């Protein structure tokens, strides 16, 4: 009986193994087409969706395009500003010159009048009027005369030509005389006053 049971157990085990092998074989055949289908789908998906490398190449191409456009724009801006600066330099004194043209006309009229003049007083008066007109025009443009005589010597405003003995102690270190007037343009010194200082 034992032999029969052992034989039956052995037969059952062999049957189970055969059934399992058949199932695995069948499943393997079924799984193979599924795997092949998945591989095909993956290949088709790869063709449809770009890879990371292709995305990076596209981003690099876009960045290069933006860089080239920006560089070209900056280069155009630089050229335009250089051209505008050159034009501004050529015409920067235009408004002052245009404002001074009437003074030049007055000087020409004064010269013609001096040829016919018999008296000095009217000529002197005419020159004074022209000088006042010139000062007014320059004053409108921001030019101011410095007043130096009697003020303390200031190296930021004055240029000392010489020292002379001061007649009194309170004039020591102060401007005694002015050889050439100093001028400021919009509160900035454009010409230092040449002065004589008391010592």
Automatic annotation (TrEMBL):
It holds the Pfam family GrpE. Its main location: cytoplasm. Gene3D superfamilies: 3.90.20.20, Head domain of nucleotide exchange factor GrpE (2.30.22.10). GO terms for cellular component: cytoplasm. Keywords: Chaperone, Cytoplasm, Stress response. Residues 1-54 are annotated as: Disordered. PROSITE patterns: GRPE (PS01071). It is found in: Cytoplasm. One of its GO terms (molecular function) is unfolded protein binding. Residues 12-22, 30-51 have a biased composition (Low complexity). GO terms for biological process: protein folding. Participates actively in the response to hyperosmotic and heat shock by preventing the aggregation of stress-denatured proteins, in association with DnaK and GrpE. It is the nucleotide exchange factor for DnaK and may function as a thermosensor. Unfolded proteins bind initially to DnaJ; upon interaction with the DnaJ-bound protein, DnaK hydrolyzes its bound ATP, resulting in the formation of a stable complex. GrpE releases ADP from DnaK; ATP binding to DnaK triggers the release of the substrate protein, thus completing the reaction cycle. Homodimer. Belongs to the GrpE family. HAMAP family: GrpE (MF_01151). This is Protein GrpE. It comes from Mucilaginibacter rubeus. The lineage of its organism: Bacteria, Pseudomonadati, Bacteroidota, Sphingobacteriia, Sphingobacteriales.
